[in-house]
């Protein structure tokens, strides 16, 4: 019953957290950063255990790299906490206030959500990061990391939870589930009323598993099958620059593009230049029939390609009739993350903005900007690709909800 | 496979609905209102069938009354649609826009959620009401009403869906599930990706069933175990007026109060007056031990009472130590709907506002104002008692989400 017990403790901590002074939270975050650095030997020793176990299990090197901590990565976590302490606290702000004819003043006040569960995979840095963001936004957090990283995560939580408590944060504000039994996480996903929100962070399988099994509200994050549409009115030099940036600057992240759609009127002019440039940068191109009739060396794209997030130097290309077919294709195949149109035509730009059903819709810019830092939020807990509560990069404000505050002087309803 | 088929049609309709001109939506709502009036004989005949079947099943009179339509109620539905047509359309509004150092303009644009499922009980007026609100906010709706009202609901949907279509609304924007098999609604609750949001409307059992079984995002509505706390600094005359209003003006609704908490310092002075007044108005009082030591005729309140939404002329009363114990009691037992403090003390008022974890927190006013109309939203689809996405009265804006719109001139990420 570990999750049930910890959720009860978290719920009661969350009541006090909601009232906590901003200075106490900021001081706690600084002390947590200090304590991470002080505890680095202990954390690295715990991490070594995890690495060894993973190696013995034959886990592949790229995953072991995600799991691995070193001094620099621990410093990175500590700096992350310091950055969070410097961000403005959204809790308690009244965003709008209006007066009703009967004299009631009605306002919307930002407040914490309550208890947030984070279900994640092998990167231990998520532990400190998520704990810091939840604390600053006044939420209690229950961390359920991957079993591969359990020793590392426990060591990190020991350090930061202790530092938080010493700084005046209620006990139980930061907790970790240590039981690796799958049943524990299954029950966690049904704790409506005790856990207010679950945020899964990790691969598509993890996220889909949480969405399909949780009755606690979930925020879906991360998967990015992003598109650039090059309109017939595009500045082609700009289009090429944006595509190269969005595909190759960091191909393994969710806001990198996976697809380019090209208006048929410019296919002869633009396609060969783009294919040559991307190929020279090591990108494998897969194309529709029309693409391959112009660039015969391009591999064939199949139906699966249109849905796939490669997270790699692969790009699928399709020639489309016009902006309407581009919009239709994107709304059919996109994961709802980020899409960009390159055009100098005002009407097409507006149509694209209005019709595309994704979290971030760009005109004449790289999709790589869909990021809490780049949007000016300072830090993010993830990028929501669903539509309820929050969409796109989720910063501190998206970790809060609101309540109506109504100030009267004796009003009753007639 | 009725829900799957209808959800696919709704999804495709929702794409076109998102783009629909505001005037087309308003015209459609007016035509829907007209068509309801024109179809009233057909609707009343269908309703008669439902009433007869319910009577034969021995359904109790109060439920049959909810089910019953007459000319006035049909006119009421039609007027509701006209009122919705007169409200401002939230879709397409850019609420904030900011500039980043690289010149990117980032804004948040309101857009429809997509496909909304409404699961409700026997009141057929919900059918027209929910369809109107979803249409105006650009969402496709799938209605799943109670089987008792099926003939009435089908007749209403026939009228309004036809009128909408003739007015230029895409086919499939308003659909009703006709299959009364429980499996149909069970599958509806798992249609992630096809249905974007479920809103259950009805009794606590219906709502809890949807929350516990749905993996589609749900908005929990309705249950109101609301409190008034009378502080030692209260204007006692005002307190009495507010309590009488909040308890007796309409006891069967969710924003009526079910509990009064009284600061111990004023118990001797306030309690007897309040008990006398409420008793004279036909309210049954149940009290804590201290309450009963002052007013011995008051019945005993047990643990269950503190959690119960009576929806009736019953009130439970508790004497508390101070504002902190009032807050603790409310946060423990409340359903998170509406709570009010009566006080002239500024610090206590601010503490109450900041600490109470409910959708609407009042100072010196009746809780009966928690209502879309009273808040100035014009109409509401329900009152959310959960914390994700929307809290409190949900109007047209709460039936939308947002997307980020990013306007650039060739920005790429370095």
TrEMBL record, chains A, B:
EC id: 1.2.1.41
Task: Please give one Gene Ontology molecular function term for this protein.
Answer: NADP binding
Domain of life of the organism encoding this protein: Bacteria
Keywords, A to Z, come to: Amino-acid biosynthesis, Cytoplasm, NADP, Oxidoreductase, Proline biosynthesis
Single Gene Ontology BP term? L-proline biosynthetic process
One Pfam family, please name it.
Aldedh
Mind telling me what this protein is named? Gamma-glutamyl phosphate reductase
């Amino acid at each position: 019953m570990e999750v049930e017990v910890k959720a009860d403790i978290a719920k009661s901590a969350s009541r006090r957290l909601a009232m906590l002074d901003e200075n106490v939270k900021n001081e706690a975050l600084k002390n947590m950063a200090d304590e991470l650095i002080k505890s680095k030997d202990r954390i690295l020793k715990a991490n070594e255990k995890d690495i060894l176990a993973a190696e013995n299990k034959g886990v592949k090197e790229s995953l072991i790299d995600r799991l691995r901590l070193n001094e620099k990565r621990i410093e990175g976590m500590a700096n992350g906490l310091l950055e969070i302490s410097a961000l403005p606290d959204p809790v308690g702000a009244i965003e709008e206030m209006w007066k009703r004819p009967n004299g009631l003043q009605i306002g919307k006040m930002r407040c914490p959500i309550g208890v947030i569960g984070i279900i994640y995979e092998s990167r231990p840095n998520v532990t400190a990061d998520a704990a810091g963001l939840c604390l600053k936004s006044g939420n209690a957090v229950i961390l359920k990391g991957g079993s591969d990283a359990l020793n590392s995560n426990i060591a990190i939580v020991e350090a930061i939870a202790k530092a938080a408590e010493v700084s005046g944060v209620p006990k139980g504000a930061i907790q970790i589930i240590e039981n690796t039994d799958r049943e524990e996480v299954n029950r966690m996903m049904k704790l409506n009323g005790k856990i207010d929100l679950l945020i899964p962070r990790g691969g598509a399988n993890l996220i889909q598993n949480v969405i399909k099994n949780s009755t606690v509200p979930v925020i879906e994050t991360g998967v990015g099958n992003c598109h650039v549409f090059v309109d017939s009115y595009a500045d082609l030099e700009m289009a090429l620059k944006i595509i190269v940036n969005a595909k190759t600057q960091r191909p393994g992240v969710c806001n990198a593009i996976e697809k380019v759609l090209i208006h048929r009127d410019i296919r002869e002019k633009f396609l060969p230049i783009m294919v040559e440039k991307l190929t020279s940068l090591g990108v494998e191109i897969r194309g529709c029939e029309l693409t391959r009739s112009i660039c015969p060396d391009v591999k064939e794209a199949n139906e699966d390609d249109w849905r796939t997030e490669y997270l790699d130097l692969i790009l699928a290309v399709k020639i489309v009739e016009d902006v309407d077919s581009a919009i239709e294709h994107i709304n059919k195949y996109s994961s709802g993350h980020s899409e960009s149109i390159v055009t100098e035509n005002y009407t097409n730009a507006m149509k694209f903005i209005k019709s595309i059903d994704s979290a971030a819709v760009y005109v004449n810019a790289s999709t790589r900007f869909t990021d809490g830092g780049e949007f000016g939020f300072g830090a993010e807990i993830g990028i929501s690709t669903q539509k309820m509560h929050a969409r796109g990069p989720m910063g501190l404000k998206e970790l809060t909800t609101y309540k109506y505050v109504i100030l009267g002087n004796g009003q009753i309803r007639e």
